[in-house]
Design a protein that fits this description.
Length: 419
Amino acid sequence: MAAWECQRLQSLIAARRPGHSLAAPFYTAADVFAADLDLIFGRHWIQVGVEPDVPEPGDAYTVDIGPWSVLIVRDDDMGIRAFHNVCRHRGARLVDSEKATVGNLVCRYHQWTYGLDGRLLFAEHMGKDFDRACHGLKPVHLRSLAGLLFICLADEPPADFDAVARVMTPYLAPHDLANCKIACQSDLIEKGNWKLTMENNRECYHCAGNHPELTIPLFAYGFGFSPEEADETDLLQAARYDRMVCDLGARWEAGGLPSRVVEHLDDMVTGFRTQRLPIDGSGQSQTLDTRVASRRLLGRLTDPQLGGLSFWTQPNSWHHFMSDHIVTFSVIPLDADNTLVRTKWLVHRDAVEGVDYDLDNLTGVWQATNRQDADLVELAHAGVRSPAYEPGPYSPFTEGLVDQFCNWYVSRLAAGLTP
Ligand code: 3BY
Ligand code: FES
Ligand code: FE
């Protein structure tokens, strides 16, 4: 990055008003987008998939992030590894589909052949002095957090992932994501900057006006409300919600399921937050009728009424773990104006479609909600492009997590710019 580019970014960062949305260039400028890829997506733990993307030895899954392409493979010992998806001969993309099942990894161009451990096994016509050992695939850091796959493209990944894993494993492990199957995946391209996608996810201010399918009763109260403006009904609802959080939380905790909120969204390099939230009084799952979508509960769970355990990570993911299914969301920036939102619905791997679950019922709430959110992100992106746009104030009651996302983002960008 040229010195003047670095200075421009630093002055944008210095001008940021806390408690306000970001200045327009953060959402629209090509140089900020390049910095986002380099300093944010290139240096932090990025959630890209789940263990069930590669259930069997030889299964491969590729994810493109900006100029990078990452290849995730299940090896013969059931380990999972990640490599740069770049042949060590002349650089051809090794696997050029999103999913593949292979014995070895064979480059289509000149058939250089790599093992699932990345070692170069075979390369014809290279002469007797050629050292195969120096031409293995380049590894990418990969961690599975209770079945959620995170990669880090940096040489030195943030060390605090271990701390995140220590806290989160007891929350996530009972849902046994590693032994699920992907029942459905949706790839939605939102016409907006990736940070608008993330900001939209971090609040439910917009839920009442935009998400009829998500009126899982009282859901929005989990994201706060303004006590000053609340009428009696609001206050009663909120009190009822608080009681539910207390009562159900105590029941879940007593049953060995951690449920209490943990919040480190802007005070860790690998920022995260978790909480198990009730789904109405007797609601079981995030479906239209709030009943479980799959008859086969996950792992060894026996109680269908476990609410939704949400797990939010900076910079690019959020997830909901229920008793019967899991929904994961991974956000991948495509350019300054376009963002991929990849959603996966997971059920127990032995659950049978049409017998144990109905796909439309399983995916209904979030398919509809995702479309509505995509529309809102597009609306926001169109607005921030206008010269008349100026950063506006976040609600102190309902947009605290949005502000924390921006705090995290701006401070990590600043850290990346500091030599
Ligand atoms: O996925 C979610 O949980 C967030 C929370 C509220 C808005 N959005 C739908
Ligand atoms: Fe892969 Fe030549 S570029 S074998
Ligand atoms: Fe939404």
